[in-house]
Each structure stands twice: as C-alpha cells, then as structure tokens.
Amino acid sequence: MGFFSFFSKDNNKEKLNKGLEKTKESVFSRISRSIVGKSKVDDEVLDNLEEILITSDVGVETSLRIIQRIEDRVSKDKYLGTAELNSILREEISALLLEKSSGEMEDFDVESKGRPYVIIVVGVNGVGKTTTIGKLAHQFKKKGYSVMLGAADTFRAAAVDQLTIWAERVGVPIVSHGMNADPAAVAFDTLKSAVSKEIDVVIIDTAGRLHNKVNLMNELSKIRNVMKKVIPDAPDEILLVLDASTGQNAIEQAKQFTAATDVNALALTKLDGTAKGGVVIGISDMFKIPVKYIGVGEQIDDLQVFNSKEFVDSLFS
Predict the structure, then answer these.
(1) Which of 87, 142, 284, 294 has the fewest CB atoms within 10 Å distance of its CB?
(2) Is the pLDDT of residue 1 over 60?
(3) 10 Å Cβ neighbour count for 192?
C-alpha cells in the first residue's frame, strides 16, 4: 500500500469521525447523565440505557437484543461497574454488527463477470438517491472502471436533469429518454449500449415512489425482465438508498422496499447531518442485507464503503 492509500484511509476515517459527531454527542452525553451517582450496572441503568438506544433510533428489537447481551454479562460477571459501560456497549454492538458483516467490501470493487456489472438503485424521493448514484459513479471511475448511467426515474423531470448533471460532472455517459418515457425501455437501451461499448459498471436510477407497493413491484419487475433480454442474469445488485436522518422512517422504508423487490444492498446517506446514526446499527441488525455504503458529507468523495468495525470504532472514539 502506497503513501496515498494511507492518506486516503486516514482521510476517510477523519470524515467518518466528523460525520458521527452529532450521534456521539447525543448518545454518550445521555449515557453519562444516566449513570451519575451509580457505581454498578443495575436494572435502573439498563432501563435507562434501553430507552437511550431506542430513542437514538437503534430500533426496539435491536436495542432489546443489546440489553439482553449486557444483562447476560452482568449475570455472568456478578458485578459490572458503570465505568465499564461504554466499553461493554462497544463490545456488544461490535459483536452484533460483525455477525451481519460477512463479505463486507474493503473498497469500491465489483465482481468481474466479463460483461457489465449492473446496479439498480431504488429509494423514495429526497433520500439522496441521485446524489448517491453520482458519487458511486465517481468512486468506481476513480478505481479505473468505465461507468454508464441510466435515467429510468422518468416520473420526475428533475430526476432526469439531476442525473444528467451528475453524469457530466463525473464524466461518464448517460442514457436518457426524458420525462414520462418508459423506464424499462431506458434500462434496456442502457444495457444494450453498455454491452456494445464494453462498459464495466452500469448504474440505473428508478422512480422514488412508495405510495403503491404493487405498482412499484410491477415497475421494477418489468425493468428486470427487459434487462434479462440483454444480460440474462442481470441485475447484480438492487441497492436501496435510505436517509439516516429520518431514523425510524428509514427502517419502515427498508421494510416496504424489501417486501416489494429483492434488495441485496443498502446505502445510508446524510449521517453527517443527524444525531440518528444509531439507525445504522438497527438496520444492519434487522435486515439480512449488507449495508454497503454510507454518506458522511456533501462532497463528491464523501461516500464511503461501510466497514462495521471502523463504524463502531468511530462511534466510540
């Protein structure tokens, strides 16, 4: 690993630390207040900790799981001091995330298949879907991959325009038929073009509607079916983008989208602007789908590959 690789990793760690500042301030200041005057971890401390985790958008199920792990340790060790609570919490959250983190990527790499690697991006409007696509294209291009975008969110003119601006900014080609075009036709033409030009990575935007799950499912099924006419085993990835700052709404959206289509990767945006970073823990735990990317800032390089160990280290630093 060269000097610039070390510099890049240190820079990413610094951005992650900064991005989680609000969450750290919110969670750990409340934990500190809850154990004032307490010398050991008792039922009252655990009740307070449970409330803090739940209200920090870790989620009820995950919070209860963490508390149960700590209760088991209290029972086993007979006495645990409150001074040890942060380190215990760190260990248990880390263990919980590591159970879900098999196959985590270390960098922006895609599996070589001798044909375009195809990513469909889904998510409601306003979560940072288009921005995530642009930043993802930038990161893949930095790694030396050729990238093509497909503007299949044809429900809103703004979505097509925004993606076109990102394509120009990153310097990658885009296939667009404009507003009200058939999304499946856009996806089909994108793949045909990508195959003919031997593109490495294709990223296709889709409409951010969730008001009717049946319509959403039908639209995504149609897109996938026409893709298979070009590449039989496409797509490789259905990436759901969620806004971390919406807390429990992000978890609810994940439930809706995973019920509507075969989501196999998650991206969580806007971690830098929220105290609700705990939602990453809840989503990682609740869904058997890896969190692949996290957004920790507004700059083009502020999309990172999610690493559960680094996330926990930063959260407790």
Answers:
(1) 87
(2) no
(3) 14
